[in-house]
Design brief:
Elements (H helix, E strand, L loop, with lengths): L2 H7 L2 H9 L3 E9 L3 E8 L4 E8 L1 H4 L4 H11 L12 E5 L2 E7 L4 E2 H6 L6 H20 L12 E4 L2 E4 L4 H5 L20 H4 L7 H16 L9 H10 L5 H4 L5 H10 L11 H9 L15 H6 L14 H28 L1
Antiparallel strand pairs: 1-2, 2-3, 3-5, 4-5, 6-7, 7-8
Helix pairs in contact: 6-9, 6-13
């Protein structure tokens, strides 16, 4: 057996550790998804924690290392406050990896998995921050292709988009119909992406619309039990309305999502910036608080039939002050009278 064959049969984690040992020490696995496995590691050169993402080997078999490195080098030039930067990347022994800063906080997926829908203000804020990141990338000719809650990180009040350009880097050559496949997540990918048609920047807008819908309702708009059913719903059904799940939300939001989630790209907003501007002009939800975010007991106490007019308690402090003033006046009157009598 050749030395090369022996290397390929070694466990993936062992091979990756060996490749990185001069500059990074792998600590533990901290995440796993359809495209990559994520490891926490220590950057030995700069003494800092980093996230090492190993592209799933079953995906990389159909992609060339040269293309991966070329695409990653392009996206590594993106510098934006809402884009998680790429620190390093490499391809060796059939393994493709890239390294990013390790962010303290949680992903949007972790936040949503806690079971709470986001408030209107927070959901719109996150959407606009990610829209700013996408607009910047689109202006630089880069499409994300995999916008989803797992790739949105929340830290110190900021939303940051990760894995930029990775889908483009590992997606198969569109001219090779024999091995061509689509990288992305069915619940969030645009219909044209699911049908393997030409994709432009408006595919990211569709995905961001799906994320906004989920933040407000708890589920993506066309989610079904299987991948095939999910894609079929995207291709045949009209966009559901968030106001049906959250009646307090402005009806204009339904119109914005209907356009962002349009089946045909030409019907969507021309840019994510235009979508963000539409969101910025929305009126606030009905009521002082959104019903979905107010505890049930508080909502019950504020129901018209249960609010009672309470009798205010006597103002003890004010009464005491008035008695002191009155006593002082009486004392002054007594002194004046004594002075007058003494004069007689």
């Amino acid at each position: 057996m050749s030395a090369k064959g022996t290397k390929r049969e070694r466990p993936v984690l062992e091979r990756l550790s060996s490749m990185l040992e001069e500059h990074y020490t792998l600590k533990k696995e901290i995440g796993r998804g359809g495209m990559s496995v994520v490891y926490l590691a220590k950057d030995l050169r700069h003494d800092r924690p980093v996230a090492v993402k190993l592209v799933q080997p079953e995906i990389t078999t159909a992609s060339s290392a040269e293309r991966f490195l070329r695409e990653i080098q392009i996206t590594a030039k993106l510098q934006h406050p809402h884009i998680l930067p790429l620190l390093d990347s490499g391809a060796n022994e059939g393994l493709l990896y890239y390294i990013m800063p390790h962010i303290e906080g949680e992903s949007l997926r972790e936040r949503l998995s806690a079971g709470d829908r986001l408030s209107f203000e927070e959901a719109i804020g996150i959407t606009q921050q990610i829209a700013a990141a996408l607009q910047y990338a689109h202006e630089n000719g880069i499409i994300h292709r995999d916008v989803k809650p797992e790739n949105i990180l929340l830290s110190a009040g900021l939303a940051v988009l990760s894995d930029f350009g990775v889908a483009s880097a590992i997606e198969d050559d569109e001219n090779d119909s024999k091995t061509r496949f689509t990288v992305g997540t069915p619940a969030y990918m645009a219909p044209e992406q699911a049908e393997r048609e030409k994709v432009d920047h408006r595919a990211d807008q569709y995905s961001l619309g799906c994320v906004l819908f989920e933040m407000l309702t708890g589920s993506p708009p066309f989610f079904a039990g299987t991948v095939g059913e999910t894609i079929q719903r995207k291709l045949t059904e009209s966009t559901p309305r968030v106001s049906e799940a959250r009646p307090e939300l402005p009806r204009e939001l339904d119109e914005i999502l209907e356009r962002a989630l349009a089946r045909k790209p030409r019907t969507r907003y021309e840019s994510v910036e235009e979508m963000a501007q539409a969101l910025d002009g929305l009126p606030p939800p009905v009521g002082l608080e959104e019903a979905g975010n107010v505890p049930a007991v508080t909502r019950a106490l504020r129901s018209p039939g249960l609010v009672r007019q309470a009798t205010p308690p006597p103002p003890a402090k004010d009464t005491g002050r008035r008695l002191l003033v009155l006593g002082g006046i009486l004392s002054l009157i007594v002194i004046i009278l004594l002075a007058i009598l003494d004069g007689w």
